[in-house]
Design goal:
- By secondary structure, this protein is mostly beta strands.
- The protein has one domain: Immunoglobulin-like (Sandwich).
- 0% of the residues lie in helices and 46% in strands.
- The chain has no helices and six strands.
- The chain has a three-stranded antiparallel sheet with strand order 1-6-3, with no helix packed on it. A three-stranded antiparallel sheet has the order 2-5-4, with no helix packed on it.
- It starts with a strand and ends in a 9-residue tail after the last strand.
- The relative contact order is 0.38.
Length: 114
């Protein structure tokens, strides 16, 4: 079974969504199953006692395309929109040095995959 993992440096972003891609360490025989999750910056400061002091960055990730060599995804700051779809008064984008961790599994080894 081919299992690969890694971390992608996303960095800061000033507006909207950001498109990212990364290369796998080696090719898969078929497009793998990929999981991606954000990692906060080590130096990111937040005050959990006062939620208005620092917005807690929350991210949504969409995997756009997976090939045998690479993966393309979109990351969006999710806490910028309220429950009725209106933008909050936050600055779009993010100021922290964001990273994404990923895990890719050979989909032939997963019994429930298509």
């Amino acid at each position: 079974m081919n299992i690969q993992r890694g971390i992608v440096q996303v960095g800061k972003h000033s507006h909207g969504s950001k498109l990212i891609y990364f290369l796998f360490h080696g090719p898969f025989s078929n497009a793998p199953l990929v999981f991606i999750t954000p990692l906060q910056d080590f130096d990111y400061q937040t005050d959990y006692q006062d939620p208005k002091a620092y917005p807690r960055d929350t991210f949504a990730v969409t995997v756009n395309r997976v090939g045998i060599y690479d993966c393309h995804f979109t990351i969006t700051r999710a806490d910028l929109v309220n429950s009725v779809g209106e933008r909050n008064d936050f600055t779009p984008g993010w100021g922290q040095d964001l990273r994404m961790q990923w895990l890719a599994l050979d989909n032939t080894a997963v019994p429930w995959s298509g």
